[in-house]
Amino acid sequence: MTGMRAMGWGETVDLFDAELGGRDEPEAGDGGGCSWVTVVIIGIFVLLAVLVHALFGWARDLLSAVFS
Fold this sequence. Notes:
Blueprint: E1 12-13, E2 34-35, H1 36-66
Antiparallel strand pairs: 1-2
């Protein structure tokens, strides 16, 4: 199959799709799936981690300016 597949409700995303060059072996078969909900949840956690890192960096700079 060539090109992008139309994803509908209830379908899974193959994060290591050989068709898209995600596997080392070209003869690799279908891989495991990951639902869109899982992809969105992982994205939210990454965004949350970035925001927490920025917040603590800002708080550290503020406290070092106040107490130095």
